[in-house]
Design goal:
The protein is α/β, with parallel strands linked by helices. The chain is built from 10 helices and 9 strands. The strands form 2 sheets. Strands 3-2-1-4-7-5-8 form a 7-stranded mixed sheet, with helices on both faces. The chain has a two-stranded parallel ribbon with strand order 6-9.
Amino acid sequence: MRFSVVIPAYNEEKFLPRLLDSIEVAAANYSGARDQIEVIVADNNSTDRTAAVAAVHGARVVHVSKRRIAAARNGGARAASGEILCFIDADSAIHPYTFNEIERVMSTRRYVWGVTGAVPERNSFALLVTHYMFMPMVWLTGLDIGLSFCRSEDFEAVGGYDESRLYAEDVLLPWVLRRLGRKRGQRLARIPKVKALASTRKFDQFGDWHYFWMLAHAFKSLVTWNWNDEKLAERYWYNSGR
């Protein structure tokens, strides 16, 4: 197996079909064999039809009982058999030529981790301001949203996502992999040519300007190195209307 696409999911029956359909299109466009791509939905104790929807679309469903985003990602990765692990949120959609571009980038062996970036499913002035406010950080760090990917052997070497964190586990992993890759002359990659589609449901729920108050929480976490604000995690990630 060349690619394993891991999708952490909690009550995602509404959005999951869009993502799975987009993966099917990208798989059909892949220059390699279609059967070299597997899709794993890590069902993190959903109470809706997430597992059933995933199964109908041909995805493999893995149940992860520990209610933690990092645990769901790791649970899906443990069940994966692909050389390259891809992680994408259930409310997203991927570009039709995603796998071809990842193949091109990773075959050079110059990169240890990569990300596609993403475009929002809708636009507004506030979203535009938010986007350009965060772009300098993206350029400086190489970190971005969208579909992320790395080799399974490297993922295992660093222990996967940090399950002690309630959130920001997807920010820590690239930095850990960067240290691993630096020893081999490898770096992080961004392939914005195949940007994913990002859901704006958090903006719909909390308002188009809400990232500015989220910055205060991020700064607090950086200063205290505490990524386990349970009140914030419950409100924003774990029980945000689903």
